[in-house]
Write a structure and sequence with these properties.
two-stranded antiparallel sheet; alpha+beta
Length: 90
C-alpha cells in the first residue's frame, strides 16, 4: 500500500470538511482511501487546528482610558508596529 504524506491528507480533509452529507465511509470510498486512515488524519488535523485556534484566540479585558495632561487621545501599541488610537474617556 502506498504511503501518503501530510500534504495529501490535509487536502483530503479540507475537501471533506467543505462537503456535507457524506459519511466517513462514503467519502473514503469515493476518494479511494482506507476509512480508518482517513479518520485518523481527520481527527489528528482537527485536533491540531483546534489547539492552534485556542492558542491564537484574542482575550480582551475591559478598560477605561483616563485623561492625561490635556491629551485627547491615547495610542495603545498592540505589537507588530501597530497602534490603536483611543479617545480619552471611552
Amino acid at each position: 500500500m502506498r504511503r501518503r504524506g501530510r500534504d495529501f491528507w490535509t487536502k483530503i480533509v479540507d475537501e471533506y470538511e467543505a462537503r456535507s452529507g457524506e459519511t466517513h465511509e462514503e467519502f473514503a470510498a469515493r476518494r479511494g482511501v482506507e476509512r480508518a486512515t482517513f479518520e485518523r488524519w481527520l481527527y489528528l488535523l482537527r485536533r491540531e487546528r483546534s489547539e492552534l485556534a485556542a492558542k491564537s484566540r484574542v482575550r480582551l479585558l475591559p478598560v477605561q482610558v483616563a485623561a492625561g495632561h490635556g491629551e485627547q487621545h491615547v495610542v495603545v501599541e498592540v505589537g507588530g508596529g501597530l497602534g490603536l488610537r483611543v479617545a480619552v474617556g471611552t
